[in-house]
Design a protein that fits this description.
It catalyses: 5-(methylsulfanyl)-alpha-D-ribose 1-phosphate = 5-(methylsulfanyl)-D-ribulose 1-phosphate; 5-deoxy-alpha-D-ribose 1-phosphate = 5-deoxy-D-ribulose 1-phosphate. GO terms for molecular function: S-methyl-5-thioribose-1-phosphate isomerase activity. Keywords: Amino-acid biosynthesis, Isomerase, Methionine biosynthesis. Belongs to the EIF-2B alpha/beta/delta subunits family. MtnA subfamily. One of its GO terms (biological process) is L-methionine salvage from methylthioadenosine. 40% of the residues lie in helices and 19% in strands. It is α/β, with parallel strands linked by helices. The protein has 2 domains: 126 residues, Four Helix Bundle (Hemerythrin (Met), subunit A), CATH 1.20.120; 222 residues, 3-Layer(aba) Sandwich (Rossmann fold). The strands form 5 sheets. A 7-stranded mixed sheet has the order 8-7-6-9-12-17-18, sandwiched between helices. It has a 4-stranded mixed sheet with strand order 13-10-11-16, with helices on one face. It has a 3-stranded antiparallel sheet with strand order 3-4-5. A hairpin with a 6-residue loop joins strand 3 and strand 4. Helix 5 packs across helix 6.
Length: 359
């Protein structure tokens, strides 16, 4: 995708062929700053601190973290895999990528591990970019159908599931980019997505950079627009989908699904194969939900009128804050899933029909 007309991926190798480049997403949208990762510890910090975030992207960055570790000391494979796996607990793509590296490297001699790890990380990144492109192709007909009936298409999305959350294209935003590029009149309602404001900061940034019409709204405004017929479809991403179609995504997604059901608005979830966790049946009971620092709730960072970036407290002194980062939307509230292999219902039989090898 593009920033100021220049095409980028969200993770890439430096010119020297071994350093890893990312965008520091904690600085967006105020500044576009690249970071160079040279150790697996720096990769782990980037994931933990949310300099990179989004389930597919953290998997790719973790895979490159393994490659950096093998370049340093090929004997530390198991310890590095364990350490990287502990950086974020909810998104299953992280463990999927690390499991791929484990399978690729474990039986190789030490001297062969670094080259193999870099090759596997590149394959994971390429796989994600192509997977997201296909998700876009499979989701596009949903928007074309609405456009054929109504002209303009109003999509509501939550959090950031665009190219900043993946290696390229995105999941929930991929059909929107393709619709825009095909000339459809598409407009996106962008939930601000408290407490970290990934919608207002990241989704709005990348939609704007691509020229897609959008409006940022407060998280609690989505139901109002649905009641007044101004949302045609909801498309969100996900950090983990269970065998039975339950969906873990950014906190607040469940409430959007409830509002969509009450107003007869289709609620679609876009996901790559790496987000499927066929070991889990009951998402509410079994998916671990990351609890992040309360300061993300009590403090806000923004740009002042004179251009300074400042962090301020917005919660009364002495008040504590709870901060679950994700919630789970039960499959019964999901209209369907958009995958790189096609669209399907959010249930076990439909998922297994698309992914029989995961049975």
């Amino acid at each position: 995708m593009k920033i100021n007309g220049v095409a980028y991926r969200s993770v890439w190798l430096d010119a020297d062929g071994w350093g890893v480049r990312i965008f520091d997403q904690t600085k967006l949208p105020w500044m576009v700053e690249e970071l160079r990762l040279t150790t697996w510890q720096e990769a782990a910090h980037a994931i933990r601190s949310m300099q990179v975030r989004g389930a597919p992207l953290i998997g790719a960055v973790a895979a490159y973290g393994v490659a950096l570790a093998m370049r340093e000391d090929a004997g530390q494979l198991d310890a590095v895999l364990e350490a990287l796996a502990e950086t974020r607990p909810t998104a299953i793509n992280l463990r999927w990528a690390l499991d791929r590296q484990r399978a690729k490297l474990h039986n190789l001699p030490a001297e062969a591990r670094a080259a193999a790890a870099y090759a596997e990380a590149a394959a994971i990144a390429d796989d994600d970019a192509e997977t997201c492109r296909r998700i876009g192709e499979n989701g596009l007909p949903l928007l074309q159908e609405i456009a054929a009936k109504k002209g303009r298409v109003n999509v509501l999305t939550h959090c950031n599931a665009g190219w900043l959350a993946t290696v390229d294209w995105g999941t929930a935003l991929a059909p929107i980019y393709m619709a825009h590029d095909a000339g459809l009149d598409v407009h996106v309602w962008v939930d601000e997505t408290r407490p970290r404001n990934q919608g207002a900061a990241l989704t709005a940034f990348e939609l704007g950079a691509h020229g897609v019409k959008h409006t940022v709204i407060a998280d609690n405004a989505g139901g109002h627009y649905m009641q007044h017929g101004e949302v045609d479809i909801v498309i969100v991403g996900t950090d983990r989908v269970t065998r039975t179609g339950d969906v873990a995504n950014k906190i607040g997604t469940y409430l959007k699904a409830l509002a969509a059901r009450d107003n007869g608005v289709p609620f679609w979830v876009a996901l790559p194969h790496s987000t499927l966790d066929m070991r889990v049946r009951d998402g509410v009971a079994e998916i671990p939900i990351e609890e992040r620092s309360g300061t993300e709730v009590t403090e806000l960072t923004g740009r002042t009128a004179d251009g300074r970036i400042e962090t301020v407290r917005v919660v009364a002194a002495g008040s504590e804050a709870a901060n679950p980062a994700f919630d789970v939307t039960p499959a019964r509230l999901v209209t369907g899933l958009i995958t790189e292999r096609g669209r399907c219902a959010a249930d076990e039989a439909s998922l297994l029909a698309l992914y029989p090898e995961k049975a």
